[in-house]
Write a structure and sequence with these properties.
single chain, mainly alpha, two-stranded antiparallel sheet, two-stranded antiparallel ribbon, 13 helices
Length: 316
């Protein structure tokens, strides 16, 4: 709501000139300003107490913030996130298509996979892949119940990193399958019927018509899953993969500086998730072009608009 102040035009200007002289002034709400001041004061008080606390040992934070061990752990975390999400997205699309297949056997197999991998804890799955050699000493390729052509030691094939990628990726595929299925079902059936009336096959309809429209629904939760995966990689400490948190645990188990090193971990997790948030924002903006007439402004466009408004206010 706004109050409208009318500034009478001098010299009897026309109605259009009078309308231009009107300026909308926002309704003043002193309560909101008082609340903002109180919240700001409380925030500054908490930050000041945290930053100036000598027990935080900021010198230790600065010492290990860019140390080679931490950087190597961060690279492993990012690698695990990328590989697990790639496996999860590909597997999720395949499982969603199978789940919606007209073949009841394929549909039920997909349902069983999703039920199994969503129904068991991720940590248990990671440990299962890591100790797979206890059940299957060798992995081979051959004819079932017949000769084996090639085989190798499971401990050689399933390393710590491989077990982490399999555990994270296959678990993620179960969740991505439901996200992709939700996106596909959001597309109106008339789109598929029109494509098939034009002579497209089922696969062409899926690739060219359905999936591009479903991406607008799929991308936001997928971005959320990627950010969640970045943090979930910390679970691989159970199988001793040297990712970011495992590296930090190794350091503070020797120098007993737990809190400063956990601050280092939080810093790098926040940096990585912020980058993913920016990527998700631009992806949503790109694939939302067909749904909305006006795209939301980018951060750069908002800064330019704020600067332009400031200049206009200063010129008055």
């Amino acid at each position: 709501m706004t109050e409208t102040l009318t500034r009478a035009g001098s010299g009897g200007a026309g109605s259009s000139g009078a309308a231009e002289s009107l300026r909308a002034v926002p309704v003043r709400r002193p309560g909101l300003r008082v609340a903002a001041v109180l919240v700001t004061f409380l925030l500054v008080f908490l930050l000041e107490g945290w930053i100036t606390n000598p027990r935080m040992q900021w010198g230790t934070v600065g010492e290990f913030l860019f140390s080679p061990v931490i950087m190597e752990g961060l690279r492993t975390t990012l690698l695990l996130t990328a590989l697990a999400m790639a496996l999860g997205i590909v597997g999720g699309v395949l499982l969603a298509v199978l789940r919606m297949s007209a073949n009841p056997m394929l549909s039920r197999l997909s349902w069983c996979y999703i039920w199994l991998f969503r129904g068991t804890p991720l940590l248990v799955q990671l440990l299962f892949w890591y100790f797979l050699s206890a059940v299957v000493p060798t992995i081979g390729v051959g004819i079932p119940w017949g000769p084996t052509f090639v085989e190798a030691d499971t401990n050689v094939l399933i390393t710590q990193l491989t077990a982490a990628v399999l555990g994270l990726g296959l678990h993620e595929a179960a969740y991505m399958a439901e996200i992709v299925r939700a996106g596909i079902t959001s597309v109106d059936d008339g789109q598929s019927e029109a494509a098939q009336a034009l002579g497209m096959s089922r696969g062409q309809t899926l690739r060219r018509i359905v999936l591009p429209q479903a991406l607008r629904i799929i991308i936001p939760p997928t971005g959320n899953q990627a950010i969640s995966m970045l943090k979930t990689t910390s679970l691989v400490f159970a199988i001793a993969v040297p990712e970011l948190l495992t590296s930090i645990q190794g350091i503070y188990s020797r120098n007993f500086q737990q809190v400063p090193l956990l601050v280092v971990a939080c810093f790098w997790y926040l940096v990585a998730t912020s980058v993913l948030n920016v990527g998700q924002y631009y992806l949503e903006r790109r694939f939302g072009r067909g749904a909305g007439r006006d795209l939301p402004p980018t951060p750069l466009q908002r800064l330019r608009a704020a600067a332009r408004n400031h200049r206009e206010e200063s010129a008055r």
